[in-house]
Design a protein that fits this description.
heterodimer, A: Rossmann fold, 2 domains, 7-stranded mixed beta sheet, 3-stranded mixed beta sheet, B: alpha/beta, Rossmann fold, 5-stranded parallel beta sheet, 9 strands
Amino acid sequence: MRNDVLLDIATFLARRWSGNSRIVISIMRDIIPTARPEKGQIVLPIIDYFPGTDFQKYRQWRVALWYESMRIMHSSKVLSYDHAYGFLLNTIEKKRIEFLGLLQWQGMVKEIIFNESIFWLSCPLLNSLYGRHKVVEAFSQYFLTGYIKGELFGSEFERVKASAEFANSLVDQAIKNNYGTDWIERHIPKLIKMLEIDPLVSIPIIAPRTRIGLSINRSDLLKQIENLLSTSTKYKPDEIDSTTKKVAEGNDVLNEFKTLLNESTKTENKGYESLENLGLSIPKRLDLDETQIYDMDLIERTKAAFRDWKSGWVELHDKTGEEFDSESYAEMLAKPFLTDVKLSIRTKVAILLDHSSSIEDVELEYKQATIALCEALYHLGVKFAVYAFSTEARQVKCWIIKPLNIKWSTISARRLAQIKASGGTPLAEIYGLLLPITKSFKPEIMVTLTDGEPSDSSAVREMVLSYRKMGINMVGLGVGRNLNDSVGIAHNLKYLNYQKTLAVSRLQDIPKKVINLLRV
Amino acid sequence: MMLEVNYIDWNNALSILSKAFETKLFVLIIGPKGTGKTTLVRKFASHMKKDLYSVNFSLRTRESHLIGTKTLEKGEVSFVEGILVKSMRDGNMLYLDELNAAEADVLLRLDEALDDRRQLVLKEAEGQIVNAAADWFVIATINPLSHVGTKELPPQLLSRFPFRLKLEYPPEDIELQIINQHTSVDSSKIDEVKRSIKLAKSLREAAALEELYYSPSLRETIAFAKLIGKGVASKQAAEIVYANVYDQWGEVEYQKVMDMITSIFDS
């Protein structure tokens, strides 16, 4: 399962579940699922963080996303899990937000039961824990499930039981009186006192899969699911058996999993064995915030400028057609018939972004312009591909931001956001690298966003001419620091043999002017 | 004979329309599809006891549909008046539905009739001048520009409609009342209908952000209520009414919506 495919569905679900349309999802290795309500972020681990088969991992990953989305909706604060104070607050909040979340998202019950069953199997045995965090883990088990796994000695169990009862009463009161995270937090010191622990005691976080290994024993899982269902008042005794099977199988989510798996197998390579052999790379990071390169005002104005392209239909007069136009006939016009023709934009567009060091101080503006252009083209339903180049570790890299056959999404924007402007401008070589791909994809227009200062101007002129001979309209677009700079860029671009050129010093000039560049 | 029109006036739209009518200033209603714009206009016409002439604009709407056309009958050329001319002469209510789907030449003739003079010169009929009756009233509706086939209205035409009413999707409790008007919802099913309204709201928000290609309207929530009223299970009804349409944009789109349905409706 590809992480970018997961990111796409996670972003969609998190925004719907949390009611916050600005949520940004990041995926990182081996991190406990965490919500940051103040930043509108959710960080999720890669799917292998969870134990079980691929499908079982996906189900747990999805439930983790749901919990963090509920935190975004109902919690005002999420502290770190690695000390007792934060761990206890987050654990109590989990029960509260689960209750509130299930009021709206009733359909999550079975998945939560499945998740809890696996959680129980992957819980550490208390006997195997040493140190002061043992009591905190015991509290978490008892509070969330009503049981502990293993043994506690002396008065430990009494303390855990009393603390769990106190925590449950906090949750009940909070739900009844509509109290939030702050109110719960005020009672954490009392809970810490009851547990007789230091609030800063470290809590080691271990990925569940490392605790129980790769596979889950099916009969243990079924037994645990059955236990959970039996304690619930929702299910009648004669329903337990059939419901246990339903929960274990997870058919509600199976089709979704299969679709995402299928989506993950779609290759961006267009039949090539390895992109690296072609000198092409894909930016891999999924843990950054791409919203910094989104200028929403510019995007909306670019879409508005492109709107005429989206109107869809045009009426054409001709000598034959679908409808007879009596007015034209009466006026003795040569073409008295009318046909409605759909204005579909058959144009395919390729975009190449120069991210060399010469544009470093306008890097953000170039990225924002590229994003606005991509959002507008996506809005119109135009097929397009986006590439960029920069230098990384002294190596020139040609990046695939969005291939032709993959939908434009936050994944593509995230790829663009992580490229740093650096290095020289081997534009001619990059055109050469992209030649096999552009020959197969055959765009009608290729837009190069550049300041027009390549390492070898003559070579670029030759390459631009050879692209033009292939029937591709070559367009140059530059963003200058000021008016003089833009004038210079415009001259450079013209010299490089681009058929149409545009240089602006203000991003807001782009929308209306760029539409003329794209008309073939 | 005017049929009784059921409309829940949740945002005082009828009162605003009445004030516009009293001042003889035309009204433009702006809102997404399926929010009850046409029902509102029909209710208003019924309330004012006025006949309603309707035009639903599309690419195929010609100038001649509005103005009229010459015809040959029994050897004589005559002029058959179009809906705009008839409505102006009769002084009734004219409803211009989806005005921003009309072609430019059609809008130009409309503009002529809608200005302060309320007058139209029939170049098609020897330059005859048609003056609108004193109580002629026009209401137009437009869908937001994100809809396929819509264009921006020219500013001079926009200015002919100084009263502008926004008609968004109603609040959830109002939507439930509207559904109840169309189909009586059994008390045992109210909770499921409320869930479907929440689902529709989520999907509309996603469509507004262009995260989905289609936004369900009130028609879908009414259809859901009718389906479960006929004994269809709520999850299945939701799939039929809400999810299946997204399949045309690919399996992933469809599964996103199915996930929403799975998380809202317990099977």
